[in-house]
Amino acid sequence: MTNSRDTVLGRVRQALGRTGADPAAVADAQAYLDAHARGPAPAFDADRILRFIRRAGDMESTVARVSRRDEIPAAVAAYLDGLELVPALVAPPSSEPSPQLVSQLSSQLSSQLSSQLSSQNSHRGVCWPEFADLDWAQTGLIVEARPTMGDDRLGITGVFCAIAETGTLVVLSGADTPTATTLLPDTHIAIVSVNRIVDTMEDAFALVRKERGSVPRAINMISGPSRTGDIEQTIVLGAHGPFRVHILVVGT
Predict the structure, then answer these.
(1) What is the pLDDT of residue 100?
(2) Which of 47-56, 57-66, 78-87, 213-222 has the lowest mean pLDDT?
(3) CA 23/CA 28 separation, integer angstroms
(4) What predicted TM-score, i.e. pTM, was given to this entire model?
(5) What is the three-class DSSP state of 79?
């Protein structure tokens, strides 16, 4: 894809009579951005991390915190263990349930069992290369550092940054950051460092320009699990991607 892009851009430059990147034009564009103030933004409270966690929850993501990077495998295992539990079986009612409650619990149990058995019933998955050094096996996980082939139930990734205002994960495409791992598995677990959480989308794009210089082939912004409301205005999770997004915020 990169070669194709270079070919297309090469033809555009040739048509414009240019032989390559123009440092002066890049400097002019940066000067333009620096000279123009951002539009109005809402006032934010001081705790950026708490704001991100709260907004991520609003987007139907689940969030947990760990202090150190080496705690990630245990936190992932604990989350997956929790998925094995069906709430309707944990605490039976203390009195004789009504027929309506029995019907409701039966429907809920059937739905939960179907979802769990068809989506996340193992501790096997894939991760980005940056997490290959973690001791996954010690916590009973089988995690391979490779791109997903499409049939993996679990995908563990990092992020470029996260946006506190909207609870959004920002993922840049690249050889070491295969974006399919955020899209194809039923369960996406994202690792977010506290020092990579920014306030707004404008801050996220500014960080891309500052650290990457050029825009990558794709910038994916993920706000919770995949969902659709196309049929009878009923929200359905997992329609076009993961059924669930779990975020581990690392650091203090």
Answers:
(1) 63
(2) 78-87
(3) 9
(4) 0.75
(5) helix
Q: What is the CA radius of gyration of the chain?
A: 22
Of 245, 141, 239, nearest in space to 187 by CA = 245
- pLDDT tens digits for range 122-141: 699 999 999 999 999 999 99
Structure tokens at 204: 């996220």
Q: Which residues contact 195 (CB under 8 A, 6 or more apart)?
A: 251
Q: Which two tokens stand for residue 175?
A: 């050889």
What the block records as the tokens of 101 is 């409650």
- Neighbouring residues of 145: CB distance < 8 A, sequence distance ≥ 6: 126, 127, 128, 129, 131, 132
Strand-pair partners of 191? 248
pLDDT band at 4 (very low <50, low <70, confident <90, very high): confident
Residues 198 and 244: their CA atoms lie apart, in Å, by 23
pLDDT at 90: 41
What is the structure's pLDDT at 239? Answer: 72
Which one, of 168, 160, 152, 171, lies nearest residue 207 by Cα? 160
State the CB neighbour count (10 A cutoff) for residue 107: 11
Chain position carrying tokens 């690249």: 174
Q: How are beta strands 219-222 and 168-172 bridged, if at all? A: antiparallel
| Separation in Å, CA 15 to CA 20, 26, 27, 178, 237 | 12, 19, 22, 33, 46
